[in-house]
Amino acid sequence: MKNIFAISGSLRKGSSNHTILEYLGRKMPFNVNYLIYDGLSTVPAFDPGLDNDTPPKPVSELRSLLAEADAIIICTPEYAHGIPGALKNALDWMVSSGSFSGKPTALITASTGGKDAQEAMIKVLNAIDAELRPQSTLLIPFVRTKIDAAGSISEEATIGRLNVLVKSILAVIE
To answer: Long-range CB contacts (< 8 A, 24+ apart) of 56-65?
Structure first.
């Protein structure tokens, strides 16, 4: 069994980002364990003084989940032209751990705009040595226009691009 670990940059359940991650989960084959992380809000503010062999429990749990992952998918909105604070904070905790080092990582930025957050996320993921590939990086601007009232992705072009991303990440871990 392969493990794919998904992180939403939005803390709001039912957000567009969660909808996208849930869609991706339905596209995974039977031999892939797919987990959407729901503990982002529990990760304390980054404190270098606590970043040692015994970090706070939510940090050590996140690091363990990342260590078990064969691949990581991040789907995030853009807040104030940048990365949502809770997501950036969690990634800051991962710098010294090497949790992302060499891990195939897919990045989806789904927001009203998203370009600034995507550029910032690429810089952060490169800094923590995540393995990003062009075919596993996707920008979905005006995401709310691409999800219907029932919470389903309604735009065929977006569905097609998400399906390509799934195939890309699965090809890397198989």
So the answer is: 59/93, 62/37, 62/90, 62/93, 62/94, 62/99, 63/93, 63/94, 63/97, 63/99, 65/5, 65/35, 65/37
